[in-house]
Specification:
The protein is of the alpha/beta class and about 900 residues long. It folds into 4 domains: about 25-240, Arp2/3 complex 21 kDa subunit ARPC3; about 275-450, Beta-Lactamase (2-Layer Sandwich), CATH 3.30.450; about 460-605, 2-Layer Sandwich (Alpha-Beta Plaits); about 615-790 and about 855-885, TIM Barrel, CATH 3.20.20.450. The chain has an 8-stranded mixed β-barrel, surrounded by 4 helices. A hairpin with a 2-residue loop joins β2 and β3 (about 100-105). The radius of gyration is 49 Å and the shape is rod-shaped. The chain starts with about 25 loop residues before the first strand and ends with a strand. The model is unreliable at about 1-35, about 95-100 and about 295-305 (pLDDT under 50). This is EAL domain-containing protein. One of its GO terms (molecular function) is cyclic-guanylate-specific phosphodiesterase activity. Keywords: Membrane, Transmembrane, Transmembrane helix. It holds the Pfam family GAF.
Length: about 900
């Protein structure tokens, strides 16, 4: 019984060896765990065991004096060889991670030793064989403990045998009864088991009482079987010398049975180990996926040293190896990095041409120092290893890593075929798990990063910003918008716009540094998180960013001018000390960016901005209901023909009286409604009201046209002409009494879409007018293509005619241009008699403005028509209204 209890390698007082221990005849081997072993406690325990063994050996030696003769000199070497052979033929079974159980046959020479040798000879043979085995296996750190355990085992065995002999014969005779030999033999594994369980307590390892009892019972059963075989064989041979072949056959059969049982347990244990390693890698991948996006781990991408150290330790325990090295490359751009379980490596980073690193294929290679070529022998010596199992981890011909197992400790013969098979299967599982983990990491990276710029996207930015905001760190969120993205996309295409976005992202990253989280939100909008910065510092950073991003962008052979707007938001004083939602800060920064459109290009968020946009939000959400509730109405502003002062028509203008906000200016709510996609509902409402108004005038004998403003979105709606035609038929209004006014910039923004719609409307007989002419693109080529009937001079030019010769020249030019194209020219913004007379002198056709009338409700318009116009008979029994001067 050469090994009782725990056995580890020599690692010094502060580093217990990780090797699993061995024990005889089913004795439990002690686990080794770097985090639980207390060397000082175990040293005290070792001293106690060794002292107790020496004292007990002396006492039993005096109690059972030596009565042999010199003729028995050969018994001691034979017994020592028998003990050594029984241990080497042992069957090692790893019961669980860190605990091994060796089924050996040391009880057989022990029980025979009771009959053929005195106590001192058996003790010496056992001690020499046990210590010699430990030294041969290079186990030096626990030799003293095991020597003490050897002494107590043999001493206890002979003491119990002596007591049983005394009980049976009444005296200590030279020949022991077989009952005494059997009892003494069973005492040895029991003593070893009790010492091992006590060592577990000393090492502060937990073991349930039921587990300890179950293990002790199994040990006693195996010991009883071995002792019975040895005892039966001795008794048979002692009485019938020719019976030794039969005893040998029984011994061989028992050995085969043990080995078969060992293989069965090993297969079960290997399956559990494979499952454990796969689960460890999967859990490690899940934990890596749970980390915030953009955070760097210990090394590599998503690698945690502690997690992979646990995996390496599990593989080491399973193979009973002195050391296991995992060399992983989880990022294709990184070099391999190693995780070591067991003895530290003399050389942490082997050379690139190391023969154990550049192995072809994906199968396990077994190297022994005594059989290797010089190149491999040098690599093993650099690792301080006598033998090694090495297997590459590959997936789709891509090297993910390498697993190395050095120096098998739990078997005298080193790594065997089963170890090679286990490591190969485990490596296959590990490579698959690593590949799945890398795929998961790639998917996670893609989910949290913008594919164009490589920056974080909105979900990734939310993940990164959540932790500092949760920890109540002083943080400021910046939002940066470039206002040239859509223009470049329309002019040069999306590929060039993407190049500008990439260039802008690089400028952002260079200006802010690699440690600042930066995200691309959408289009040419970016966000950044400044940690431990005050709003004043954030303002300075924002100014620098705007200056950098507003610099011209070289695009191919062009240079594109750009303009950047930056808004920033920090937690308000009331929110300091409270967790703040990153989405709330992003929204506030967006509000600040929108507020920059007033001219100031860098602005910080203030609560009043939020109130403005909340008002806009309420307007948009309540608009449809306001249409149904009658809060929205249509007013009309008359238009008069200048040559004859006749009322030619009116322009329909929308008005909204909100129950909470009061009268809302159209310049405020119309853009908001248009941006929210509700302009179609507004246009249909105004059109219906205007057509019904014209129908009433027709019923009264008045022929007055009405003008309705169109939006860019109306000109992109292919169904719009059909709905207009249906409305005209339903109400019964001639199409020539309906005028659609559209802005020059609205038509020119996408003439390819607008032209077909305008042609359909014009084909219906509807009058088309270009509003605010002179302020948009002023594309005469497109103006000639448009099927329009009128142009309206923008009121800014009309109001400035009296004081600005330039405005006067613009108005005269528009009048002449319109007449040359056969168009009716309408001037809006006429507020003075001088302007009216100038326009009349230029030949302008129609005037509209406060000089004639402000926009009026239906009731006031009717009163205005009656008070300020004279009705004269016209053609087709209709009346014509002439303005009274």
């Amino acid at each position: 019984m050469p090994d009782a209890g725990s056995r580890t390698d020599e690692h010094g007082p502060d580093r217990p060896a990780p090797a699993a221990a061995h024990s005889p005849a089913g004795r439990p081997a002690l686990p080794s765990d770097d985090t639980l072993v207390d060397e000082r406690r175990f040293r005290a325990y070792t001293a106690t065991v060794l002292t107790a063994g020496i004292v007990a050996a002396l006492v039993v030696s005096f109690w059972l004096p030596f009565e042999g003769s010199a003729q028995l000199w050969w018994i001691a070497p034979v017994l020592a060889l028998s003990f050594l052979l029984a241990e080497q033929l042992g069957v090692n079974v790893d019961v669980r991670s860190g605990i091994s159980w060796t089924i050996s046959f040391t009880e057989i020479p022990l029980v025979i030793g009771f009959f053929i040798a005195p106590f001192e000879v058996v003790l010496a043979a056992h001690l020499v064989a046990g210590v010699g085995t430990l030294l041969a296996r290079k186990v030096r750190g626990r030799v003293l403990y095991n020597a003490g355990a050897f002494l107590l085992e043999i001493t206890g065995a002979f003491a119990v045998a002596g007591l049983v002999t005394h009980l049976i014969d009444g005296q200590l005779g030279s020949h022991l009864p077989w009952q005494a030999a059997l009892a003494g033999t069973l005492t040895a594994p029991l003593v070893s088991t009790l010492l091992a369980l006590a060592a577990v307590r000393v090492l502060r390892r937990r073991m349930r009482i039921s587990t300890a009892l179950r293990l002790t019972g199994r040990i006693l059963v195996v010991g009883f079987v071995n002792a019975s075989v040895g005892l039966s064989g001795y008794l048979v041979i002692a009485n019938v010398a020719e019976a030794w072949p039969l005893v040998l056959a029984v011994f061989v059969g028992l050995t085969a049975l043990y080995w078969a049982y060992s293989d069965l347990l090993r297969e079960q244990r290997d399956m559990e180990a494979l499952s454990d390693v796969s689960l460890m890698v999967a859990r490690s991948g899940q934990q890596a996926a749970a980390r915030p996006a953009g955070r760097a781990d210990d090394f590599g991408r998503g690698v945690d040293v502690g997690e992979w150290g646990t995996i390496a330790e599990r593989i080491k325990d399973q193979l009973s190896a002195g050391r296991v090295v995992l060399r992983l490359r989880l990022d294709p751009t990184d070099a391999m990095r190693g995780v070591v379980a067991g003895e530290p490596l003399p050389e942490e980073n082997p050379a690139a041409d190391d023969p154990l690193i550049r192995l072809p294929g994906a199968h396990v290679r077994h190297f022994r120092l005594t059989e290797a070529n010089p190149e491999v022998r040098a690599a093993l010596l650099e690792r301080g290893a006598q033998e090694a199992l090495v297997v590459p981890l590959r997936s789709a011909n891509q090297l993910l890593g390498i697993v190395e197992a050095h120096d098998r400790l739990s078997r005298w013969r080193g790594f065997g075929k089963s170890d090679v098979q286990l490591l190969g299967t485990m490596a296959s599982h590990l490579a698959t798990a690593l590949d799945n983990r890398r795929l998961l990491a790639t998917l996670r990276h893609d989910a949290y990063h913008d594919p164009l710029t490589g920056l974080l996207n909105r979900p990734g930015f939310r993940q990164v910003a959540r932790e500092p905001l949760r920890e109540r760190v002083s943080s400021v969120v910046l939002r940066i918008d470039l206002d040239i993205f859509s223009a470049v996309s329309d002019a040069l295409g999306y590929a060039w716009a993407d190049r500008m976005v990439i260039a802008a992202s690089r400028r952002l990253r260079d200006e802010l540094g690699a440690d600042v989280p930066v995200a691309r939100l959408e289009g040419a909008s970016f966000a950044a998180l400044l940690v431990d910065r005050t709003p004043e510092q954030a303002h300075d950073v924002s100014v620098r960013l705007r200056t950098e991003l507003s610099a011209p962008y070289p695009v191919d052979r062009l240079t594109v001018e750009a303009n950047a707007m930056v808004g920033y938001a920090a937690p308000t004083p009331e929110e300091h000390g409270e967790p703040v939602d990153v989405d709330a800060l992003l929204q506030r920064a967006d509000v600040a960016v929108r507020a920059t459109r007033g001219g100031e290009e860098v602005r910080g968020y203030v609560p009043s901005m939020g109130q403005i946009f909340m008002r806009r939000f309420q307007m948009v959400t309540q608009f449809r209901q306001s249409l149904e509730d009658g809060q929205v109405s249509v007013h009309y502003q008359p238009k008069v023909s200048l040559p004859n002062r006749q009322v030619q028509g009116v322009e329909a203008l929308v008005r909204w009286v909100h129950p909470e906000f009061g009268r809302i200016d159209p310049d405020e709510f119309v853009p908001a409604v248009e941006a929210a996609g509700l302009i179609g509902a507004l246009t249909e409402f105004v059109l219906e009201e205007a057509l019904h108004r014209v129908r009433k005038w027709l019923d009264d004998g008045l022929r007055i046209s009405v003008a309705v403003n169109l939006s860019v979105r109306n000109l992109a709606d292919e169904e719009f002409p059909r709905r207009v035609s249906q409305a005209l038929e339903r109400v019964g209004v001639p199409p020539e009494l309906l005028t659609f006014e559209l802005t020059e910039s609205g038509v020119m923004s996408d003439p390819q879409k607008a032209l077909p719609i305008l042609r359909e409307l014009h084909a219906l007989g509807i009058v088309l007018a270009v509003d605010d002419f002179g302020t948009g693109y002023s594309s005469l080529a497109y103006l000639r293509q448009l099927p329009v009937d009128q142009v309206k001079i923008d009121k800014s030019f009309v109001l400035g005619m009296g004081t600005d010769l330039g405005d006067l020249a613009v108005v005269r030019s528009i009048v002449e241009l319109g007449h040359s194209l056969g168009l009716t020219v309408v001037a809006e913004g006429v507020e003075e008699d001088v302007a009216r007379d100038q326009l009349e002198a230029m030949g302008c056709d129609v005037a509209q403005g406060y000089l004639i009338s402000r926009p009026l409700s239906e009731e006031r318009l009717e009163a205005w028509l009656q008070a300020r116009t004279a009705r004269t008979p016209g053609r087709h029994a209709e009346a014509v209204l002439t303005l009274l001067t």
